[in-house]
Design a protein that fits this description.
By secondary structure, this protein is mainly α. Helix content is 55%, strand content 6%. Strand 4, helix 7 and strand 5 form a beta-alpha-beta unit. The protein binds adenosine-5'-diphosphate (ADP).
Length: 332
């Protein structure tokens, strides 16, 4: 059976960009493939952070993922599988420094830190795509379901794997393929030129567990267009239609799209439809999460167990990689 790997950072609330861009696919792929999904807490250290909050967020994301339908046995916490960091070091010796400096996420996030109070840019922020490569390659994953923003990092992962394979003279690492949903880039409703993101500030994302009032406010105040008539659909309107499509509300999507094509679309109707759709989804997610939270201790133990099971795959890979690369192993 082909293997799927993906991961999410525990850096705050999960939002509809995460869900429609990646996590919805995680859930759907579980029937077809062997799936391994990580909450990647080592990654969350690359930006200034609070240790207590990091641990809280890690568990919170676990419960969020369970609430949206990820199976408990497919989940692991990255720092419970320390082999990821061991492979990270090894792969860093097969990674190009120049290529890392060209990563758009590094450019964006370092600019954000520079503008912040401490103006500190950790070297982890530069090198974390290597850790991401290790996350994927350690499981020899065939497919990686992620959003469009991760395309460049996945390309880097393939480059690293290829360089490693070439130097070792063996097709050892599988070159992973990216899997997109039909909506791989959800935009911020407050600024539809930017992707929806938790790191860009509160108004730039809508939590999957948001209150009805917050969803209403975000959607009602969504930027639509500047009022000027153009031939192409404005990014704000396109984003609202995309949210309907991602939610499988195709009947209403088609009917409102007809209105749009006939110059008869009332933005208030589109916004109302999107708001109601997201409220419906969030109501389901919140109820599921509350259910899982009544069983907190038991679920935490299950996650520790699933992490230890998943770790066995990582340990096997590290053993083989050490053998290949001339590092110490049992025969040393
Ligand atoms: P964030 O970018 O909000 O910090 P993560 O980096 O933890 O979130 O991303 C988790 C997953 O969600 C990744 O697969 C990423 O590609 C996807 N994702 C994040 N934001 C969006 C978005 N606006 N649209 C589509 N997918 C997204």
């Amino acid at each position: 059976m082909k293997r799927v790997l993906s991961a999410i950072q525990p850096t705050g609330d999960m939002h509809y960009g995460n869900y429609f861009g990646a996590v919805k696919n995680w859930v759907d792929l579980q029937d077809k493939y062997e799936c391994v999904y990580g909450v990647v807490d080592y990654h969350a250290m690359t930006m200034p952070y609070n240790p207590k909050k990091l641990r809280e967020n890690t568990w919170d994301v676990i419960f969020n993922l369970l609430a949206v339908g990820v199976n408990v046995e497919n989940l692991f916490i990255q720092s419970l599988v320390p082999e990821h960091t061991e492979l990270n070091w090894i792969l860093s010796c097969f990674s190009s420094y120049g290529q890392l400096t060209r990563m758009t996420q590094f450019k964006d996030k370092s600019a954000q830190n520079k503008a912040g109070e401490e103006s500190f840019i950790s070297s982890g922020l530069l090198s974390y795509p290597i850790l991401q490569a290790a996350d994927i390659l350690i499981y020899k994953a065939d497919f990686v379901p992620v959003g469009k923003d991760q395309q460049q990092h996945l390309e880097l992962t393939r480059n690293i794997a290829q360089r490693f394979n070439n130097q070792m003279g063996k097709e050892y690492f599988v070159l992973p393929e990216i899997l997109f949903t039909e909506t791989p880039k959800i935009m911020s409703t407050a600024d539809p030129m930017k992707k929806m993101s938790k790191s860009a500030g509160e108004k730039h994302s809508i939590s999957l567990f948001a209150d009805e009032k917050v969803i209403m406010k975000r959607i009602k105040s969504a930027v639509t267009d500047t009022g000027e008539k153009t031939d192409t659909m404005s990014p704000g309107i396109a984003n609202l239609f995309m949210l309907l499509k991602a939610s499988n509300k195709m009947d209403i999507h088609t009917s409102l799209m007809d209105d749009y094509n006939n110059n008869a679309l009332k933005y208030v109707d589109l916004k109302e439809a999107v708001a109601q759709t997201l409220i419906e989804l969030s109501t389901q997610f919140k109820a599921k999460k509350a259910e899982f939270l009544t069983n907190k201790k038991d679920i935490k133990n299950q996650i520790k167990y699933s992490s230890s099971q998943i770790r066995k795959i990582a340990q096997e890979t590290i053993k083989e990689v050490k053998e290949l690369t001339g590092l110490g192993n049992v025969r040393f």
